[in-house]
Amino acid sequence: MIPMSWQQVQAYWDSVGVDRKTLSLQESPGGDEFYRAMREVGLPDQKWWAFKFTRALLRSKDRVQFGKMWDGWNLWIHEKDGAFFFEDEEHRERFGNSSFLAFNQFLVLFDQGYRTHEAANLGDSGEDWDKGAVMVQEMESQMRAADSRAFENSELFWPKVIEDMEG
């Protein structure tokens, strides 16, 4: 299920017992969606995944860095329009999601997909491999329904994350 609101995103993380990194009122100078969400909902803090979110925001021009992924991918939000994008190892900016809510919806879908895959206890060959591929396709389909712009080409953030999942 795609969480449609910030309350549903928060309820999901609460239901699976995931701690979140939030900002205090003093740390979040803005009143827009990004800063409200960072104060009220926060970003999930899980040891197992490649997303590393921070409370120490780095501001640069019209954007705010709120985390990293893998080796050297910086995660940013554009303050002007609220779009999420990442900067790769070669410092190229690439689109991620249309909004910070969409990014958080995708985090929930990614986490649900991972938990479903782990619960299925699949092997890494044959029929189990095919079942795992179907689970990833279902996750991607839900992501596309939530924010189709995130899949406009294979060089964007989420297609690269899914490609990594598929091995």
Summarize the structure.
The protein is of the alpha+beta class and 167 residues long.
Explain what the structure shows:
The chain has helices spanning 6-15, 33-40, 100-120, 126-146, 157-166, and strands at residues 20-21, 43-44, 51-60, 63-69, 73-78, 84-87, 93-97. The strands form two sheets. The chain has a five-stranded antiparallel beta sheet. It is built from five helices and seven strands, in the order αβαββββββααα. The chain is of the alpha+beta class and 167 residues long. The chain has one domain (6-166). 42% of the residues lie in helices and 22% in strands. Strand 5 and strand 6 form a beta hairpin.
Blueprint of the fold:
Blueprint: H1 6-15, E1 20-21, H2 33-40, E2 43-44, E3 51-60, E4 63-69, E5 73-78, E6 84-87, E7 93-97, H3 100-120, H4 126-146, H5 157-166
Antiparallel strand pairs: 1-2, 3-4, 4-5, 5-6, 6-7
Helix pairs in contact: 1-3, 3-4
SSE run: HEHEEEEEEHHH
Order of strands side by side in the largest beta sheet?
3-4-5-6-7
Q: Could you give a short account of the major beta sheet?
A: 5 strands, antiparallel
Number of strands: 7
Span of the ends, CA to CA: 25 Å
Mean pLDDT: 87
* Radius of gyration of CA atoms, rounded to a whole number: 16 Å
Structural class: alpha+beta
Which of globular, elongated, flat, extended, rod-shaped describes the shape? Answer: globular
Strand-residue fraction?
15-25%
Number of helices: 5
